[in-house]
UniProtKB/TrEMBL annotation:
Name assigned to this protein: Methylthioribose-1-phosphate isomerase
Gene designation: mtnA
Described purpose of this protein according to its UniProt entry: Catalyzes the interconversion of methylthioribose-1-phosphate (MTR-1-P) into methylthioribulose-1-phosphate (MTRu-1-P). Also catalyzes the interconversion of 5-deoxyribose 1-phosphate and 5-deoxyribulose 1-phosphate. Part of a bifunctional DHAP-shunt salvage pathway for SAM by-products.
Catalysed reaction equations from the record: 5-deoxy-alpha-D-ribose 1-phosphate = 5-deoxy-D-ribulose 1-phosphate; 5-(methylsulfanyl)-alpha-D-ribose 1-phosphate = 5-(methylsulfanyl)-D-ribulose 1-phosphate
Keyword annotations of the record: Amino-acid biosynthesis, Isomerase, Methionine biosynthesis
Swiss-Prot/TrEMBL site (Transition state stabilizer) positions: C161
Organism from which the protein derives: Azospira oryzae (strain ATCC BAA-33 / DSM 13638 / PS)
GO biological process, one term: L-methionine salvage from methylthioadenosine
Enzyme kind, highest EC tier: isomerase
Family annotation (PANTHER family): METHYLTHIORIBOSE-1-PHOSPHATE ISOMERASE
Length: 363
């Protein structure tokens, strides 16, 4: 079930109220529904339960979570508590801490009576900037894709997880160049990997379908074969955190795609806005990797024959399960980072060449 018209954004403040609407991603791809967040706790729950997900959207939701908290209590203690509560929701995406640091740095200097309004304004600025940065990523990515399209006469892109419109405020990161190519009239087709165990690839397939972009869902393990057969022109993924040396943390399974792409001679691109760059993180080994509950592997969710949501157990509850949610792709496997400022090599020189003002933050 889907709306005939999607909202342009994936979260938005509700006019005339102190509330924020989000798309409940746990109901997709089967049902499109929105949820209204009124409190800090609801915002934290939305991030923790993956009602919102994807690094840039997590950051923007956290910013609005601070605004919701200060609406009730704008004291220093309430601000610190909001930042601590939201900061503890998910560990890997640096966008969360980037947004919280930005909110806190601004708000703690203001008199308490000015904080609530300033928090809404700053959260809206974070959301607007994310939308604009992703739009630019799309344009820069398109320039990298054009020559590939000329070679084959069409574009075959592979992606992993969901780094699209749904994972950001607008446009997406990895999918922004795909949408830009589609809008520019380039014939583009996307290989979408399922992304077990949370199946974010199903969200990618859903949003590509909504936006009319041809695509094919594949099992994660089919990616190597397609790359080896020459059926892919470029792999583009998003990121949850990029270290200062260019190492990239993204959804588990990304690393295997990068290895297969290298072996097949296919460029492997990482598209991410400034908020995903962790200039103070020296390398991938320092990035915290989220370990999620084993039931994500033990149970499979979907619709039953009558169309009702439910889950099926595929292995006993006692079965030992390891469920790391992210992995780290070494910088050497990344053809380029695509940012809102342009593309650069995945290296300290490349990153600080694009963001010279961040040099002081490097460790
Ligand atoms: C534009 S989003 C890039 C990443 O955040 C995305 O690929 C990803 O890994 C999302 O993980 P998730 O666990 O669904 O929040």
């Amino acid at each position: 079930m889907s709306p005939t018209t999607l909202p342009s954004r994936t979260l938005w403040p509700v006019p005339g109220t102190c509330a924020v609407d989000i798309i409940d991603q746990t109901a997709l791809p089967h049902h499109f529904r929105t949820l209204r967040l009124f409190t800090l706790e609801e915002a934290a729950h939305a991030i923790r339960a993956m009602q919102v997900r994807g690094a840039p959207l997590i950051g923007a939701t956290a910013a609005y979570g601070v605004a919701l908290a200060l609406q009730r209590d704008a004291s220093d203690a309430a601000l610190s508590q909001a930042v601590a509560t939201l900061g503890a929701t998910r560990p890997t995406a640096i966008n969360l801490h980037w947004a919280l640091n930005r909110m806190q740095a601004l708000l703690r200097l203001l008199p308490q009576e000015d904080r609530a309004e300033a928090a809404w304004t700053e959260a809206a600025a974070i959301a607007d900037e994310d939308a604009e940065q992703n739009r630019r990523i799309g344009q820069h990515g398109l320039e990298l894709l054009r020559p590939l399209a000329e070679k084959r006469g069409r574009l075959e892109i592979m992606t992993h997880c969901n780094a699209g419109w749904l994972a950001t405020v607008e446009h997406g990161t990895a999918l922004a160049p795909v949408y830009a190519a589609h809008a520019a009239g380039l014939p583009v087709h996307v290989w979408v990997s399922e992304t077990r165990p949370r199946n974010q690839g199903l969200l990618t397939a859903w949003e590509l379908a909504q936006k009319g972009v041809p695509h094919t869902l594949i099992a994660d393990n089919a990616a190597g074969l397609l790359l080896a057969r020459g059926e892919v022109d470029a792999v583009i993924v998003g990121a949850d955190r990029i270290a200062a040396n260019g190492d990239v943390a993204n959804k588990v399974g990304t690393y295997l795609k990068a290895l297969a792409a290298r072996e097949a001679g296919v460029p492997f691109y990482v598209a991410a806005p400034r908020s995903t760059l962790d200039f103070a993180c020296p390398g991938g080994a320092a990035i915290p990797i989220e370990e999620r509950e084993g039931d994500e592997l033990r149970l499979v969710h979907g619709l039953d024959g009558a169309g009702s949501p439910g889950s099926i157990r595929q292995i006993a509850a006692a079965e030992a399960v390891a469920n790391p949610a992210f992995d780290v792709t070494p910088a050497g496997l990344v053809a380029a980072l695509i940012t809102e400022r342009g593309a650069c090599p995945a290296s300290a020189d490349g990153i600080f060449g694009l963001y010279p003002e961040e040099q002081d933050h490097a460790r």
